């Protein structure tokens, strides 16, 4: 059967690395993005030039109507989704909890966890045997922050990833008998642009000496784990987590 993957936040970082690897493994890929149209469309073009199938779709995945439209476009242009990677995640300027306001908290939770519920809902409606689907797999991109807490940096972000872990556990059990596996990866200290959003682009290098492996990670190292969890090699794995934090 055709394998069709939706990856949220695929214009750069971990999402882009996942899209590249998925296309190389034969998936048709939908690359979702918010602002980086140039990066997303050029990656889609690169995949098509190499003989793959790719579609770049702008959508704010925190907005219900935009998520619904994203999946309708995938239905029409790539076919029924068989794999979802809930990769979108944002953080904001490092600060303590005693400085955070409600507007910031609402932005973080809407983008990091409401989005994952909305995308999972659309995917389950298409994949579940209960709804006439052929099954599929979901990988949620959580973070080691969910167990480390990100004190003094962004406890709000860490808490949204705690919610991602619970979504993974709950949804995995809800749909386990309907042909859908739901797992998560918990990366940390990966070399991407996300750290600049916190106001510290060089954060990984600052922390490096406290990482047991003595280095940060690369987006491709996270993509490898995501592709494995989505593959038939992980056929009995659901509700599980892969730690990708260099031993931290
Ligand atoms: P990144 O380089 O900052 O990329 C974020 C991606 O998300 C971009 O493609 C961005 O699109 C997209 N995006 C942001 N808000 C969106 C929205 N509302 N709707 C649609 N797309 C949106 O991030 P990354 O480091 O690759 O992180 C990917 C995931 O890994 C996140 O969930 C993050 O929490 C998690 N993670 C990362 C690390 C790390 O060290 N890097 C560690 C642990 C977990 P535009 O380019 O269009 O803005």
UniProtKB/TrEMBL annotation:
Checking SMART domains in the record gives:
PKS_KR (SM00822)
Assigned keywords, A-Z: Oxidoreductase
**Annotated Gene Ontology MF terms?**
oxidoreductase activity
**Any one Pfam family match given in the protein's UniProt record, by short name:** adh_short_C2
Q: Where is the Ketoreductase domain?
A: 3-190
Q: Which residues form a coiled coil?
A: none
Q: Which family does it belong to?
A: Belongs to the short-chain dehydrogenases/reductases (SDR) family.
What NCBIfam families does this protein map onto?
PRK06123.1
**What protein name is recorded for this chain?**
NAD(P)-dependent dehydrogenase (Short-subunit alcohol dehydrogenase family)
């Amino acid at each position: 059967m055709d394998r069709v993957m939706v990856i949220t936040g695929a214009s750069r970082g971990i999402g882009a690395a996942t899209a590249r690897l998925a296309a190389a493994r034969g998936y048709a890929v939908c690359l979702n993005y918010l602002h980086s149209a140039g990066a997303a469309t050029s990656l889609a073009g690169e995949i098509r030039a190499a003989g793959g199938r790719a579609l770049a779709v702008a959508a704010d995945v925190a907005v219900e109507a935009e998520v619904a439209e994203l999946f309708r476009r995938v239905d029409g242009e790539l076919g029924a989704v068989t794999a979802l990677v809930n990769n979108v995640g944002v953080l904001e300027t490092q600060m303590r909890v005693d400085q955070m306001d409600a507007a910031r908290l609402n932005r973080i939770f809407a983008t990091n966890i409401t989005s994952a519920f909305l995308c999972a809902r659309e995917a389950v409606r298409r994949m579940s045997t209960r709804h006439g689907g052929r099954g599929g797999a979901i990988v949620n991109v959580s973070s080691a922050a969910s167990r480390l807490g990100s004190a003094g940096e962004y406890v709000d972000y860490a808490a949204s990833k705690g919610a991602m872990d619970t979504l993974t556990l709950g949804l995995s059990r809800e749909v386990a008998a309907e042909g859908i596996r739901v797992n998560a990866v918990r990366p940390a200290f990966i070399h991407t642009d996300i750290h600049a959003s916190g106001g510290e682009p060089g954060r990984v290098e600052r922390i490096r000496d406290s990482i047991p492996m003595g280095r940060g990670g690369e987006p491709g190292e996270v993509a490898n784990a995501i592709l494995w969890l989505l593959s038939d090699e992980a056929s009995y794995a659901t509700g599980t987590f892969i730690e990708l934090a260099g031993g931290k």
